Amino acid sequence: MAAIKITHEELREELRAGKKPMEIAKAYNMTHSVVLRRIKALKETGYDPANDRDYNNPENHPVAGYSTLVRHKSANDSSTGKVLEWVKTRVDIRDQMDAATAMLDTMISDIKPLPVIPFRNKVASTDQFTVIPIGDPHIGLMTWSKEVGEDWDIKIADRVYRKVFKRLLSNLPDTEECILVNTGDFFHADNIQGETSRSKHKLDLDGRHGKWLDAGFVVIRMFIDACLRKYKKVEFINVPGNHDDILGRAIGSYVWQLYRDNPRITVQKGDSPFQYVKRGKVLLGFAHGHTCRLSSLPGKMADDQFKLWGKTTYRHWITGHVHHNSWTQFKEHPGCKVETVGIIPPKDAYAHGGAYGAARGIQGIIFDKKIGYSPKRIEETVRAND
Q1: Least buried of 30, 100, 112, 371, by fewest C-beta within 10 Å?
Q2: What is the pLDDT of residues 213-259, one digit of tens each?
Q3: Of all helices (H) and strands (E), which one includes residue 315?
Q4: Terminus-to-terminus CA distance in the chain, angstroms?
Q5: H or E stretch including 62?
Q6: Edge-to-edge, what's the strand order for the sheet holding 275-279?
Q7: By three-state DSSP, how is residue 170 classified?
Q8: 26: which residues sit within 8 A by CB, 6+ positions away?
Q9: Residue 254 and residue 361: Cα distance in Å, rounded?
Q10: Is 303 left (phi over 0), alpha (psi -120 to 50) or beta?
Q11: CA distance 207 to 223
């Protein structure tokens, strides 16, 4: 018989009633070790009678620390001396992201959709389709040439992205469809403190958060509008990264709201760290690459999309995160290839200090729906006069 799950609140009440861990394990058909682990987790949320603490924090509000006001005690005073205590908690990052996503969806629900962009180009191929991965734009990043060898801010980013993207599109074939991918880390930071939500890393930013938010939304519109003018059908794949867990997901909702009246574009908002697309004999996976090892991705695709795996002959992952181009065939998974893409922004101070670096640019990848063999690439690099 399967163990009966005991909730966080039920476990606390059982302990308050004086039950021992072994008694709880027997009553709920659980192992003693599992109950002990649950009690340890309970302690992390403020239930610690041994230290005179008995708080009712929810399971997803672990204690970050305590501030205690105590009085002076005499030598024969056996009490703790505690007068008041403030409990500092933190909300689990996943709950923060879910709450922020719901809030952002509500906030942008009144955005007026853009007028439909007419398609006036000619389709040269319906057997092929184009994938354009936008590798880690890091909008909001600021660098100083005396420190890292290159000046960069949101004005420079806007100018360079427009020039490079225009050159790339002019060199790509006129396939019927384009899949435009935000591979993650679209924004350099995720909050007004200029930090990432997960690690709280302090980042080098160009001004206030509203400034780089506005710049980022202008850039994403530039990408999509340009693709809608060139391609008959566009699918936008949004993959939040480790720099922008919350704002990265907001991009998906923003794009969906703006273009929801345009039947030529579909949007994957970015609810999952793994996104998939099948076209003919080709199965593609998209991820930022920060949640698992690259070598795990072929197996992840086979597990998540086992039916589509069996219907395709060519399978390929496209990821960001590492800021350089690479193409790997893991010998344990001969049925799937994994690619990382480069980026346009320069190195920040952290990357420069760590001696990281790679060529800066963007690429379009051409896949054949029927044949499904190794794709063709057209690359465009950042030039000195951009």
Answers
A1: 112
A2: 899 999 999 999 999 999 999 999 999 899 988 888 889 999 999 99
A3: strand 314-319
A4: 67
A5: none
A6: 275-279, 282-287, 314-319, 337-340, 326-328
A7: helix
A8: none
A9: 26
A10: alpha
A11: 23
CB atoms within 10 A of CB 144: 13
Contact criterion met (CB below 8 Å) for 245 and 200: no
Q: What is the pTM of this model?
A: 0.75
Four-residue CA torsion sign, 179, 184, 188, 191 = positive
In whole angstroms, give the CA distance from residue 238 to residue 275: 8
All residues at 6 or more sequence positions from 325 whose CB lies less than 8 Å from its CB, including other chains? 339, 340, 341, 342, 358, 359, 363
Sequence-ordered alpha helix ranges (H) in the chain? 8-16, 21-27, 32-43, 93-107, 145-148, 154-171, 209-230, 245-258, 297-304, 306-311, 349-353
* Both tokens assigned to 87: 């409990």
**Residue 240: in which H helix or E strand, if any?**
none
Distance of CA 46 to the CA centre of its chain: 31
In a 13 Å sphere around the CA of 193, the CA atoms on its Cβ side amount to 9
CA-to-CA distance for 274 and 91, rounded, in angstroms?
24
Burial of 115 (0-12, 13-18, 19+ CB in 10 A): exposed
Fill in the DSSP letter of residue 384: T
With beta carbons less than 8 A apart as the criterion, state whether 71 and 81 touch: yes
Per-residue pLDDT of the chain (386 residues), as tens digits, is: 344 578 888 888 989 999 999 998 888 888 888 888 888 888 888 888 888 888 887 776 778 778 888 877 777 766 667 778 887 776 665 566 565 566 566 556 667 888 999 999 999 989 999 999 999 999 999 999 999 999 999 999 999 999 999 999 999 999 999 999 999 999 998 877 777 777 777 788 888 888 888 999 999 999 999 999 999 999 999 998 999 888 888 899 999 999 999 999 999 999 999 999 999 999 999 999 999 999 999 999 999 999 999 999 999 999 999 998 898 878 777 889 999 999 999 998 888 888 888 899 999 999 999 988 778 899 999 999 99
Q: What angle do CA 297, 245, 37 make, to 5 degrees?
A: 75
Greatest alpha-carbon span in the chain: 92
Please give the structure tokens belonging to residue 3. 């163990």
Is residue 117 classed exposed, middle or buried when 0-12, 13-18 and 19+ CB atoms within 10 A define those classes? middle
